[in-house]
Amino acid sequence: MNVQKFIAAAAVFVAAGSAFAADAPVAAAASSVVIASNLNLPTVSITNSTSRAAVKAEAVEFVKNYKTAFAVQLEQYKN
Given 12, 27, 44, 75, which is the most exposed site by the fewest CB atoms within 10 A? Predict the structure, then answer.
């Protein structure tokens, strides 16, 4: 008799939990839409004024002159 009551109680809890869980995603989605619409974010527009070749040339020049932090420290100790 105790096992039957336990199974019946478990079935009631599962049914009640699934009924509440069915409503949860709809409520969460609605609240996130409301929050997202109230955000005051600036729009960002990116303009590309340099060519690909100019950026590549700048990167190549940087790599040629690049020194690690350790190399910079060694140069400071020499002087």
Answer: 44
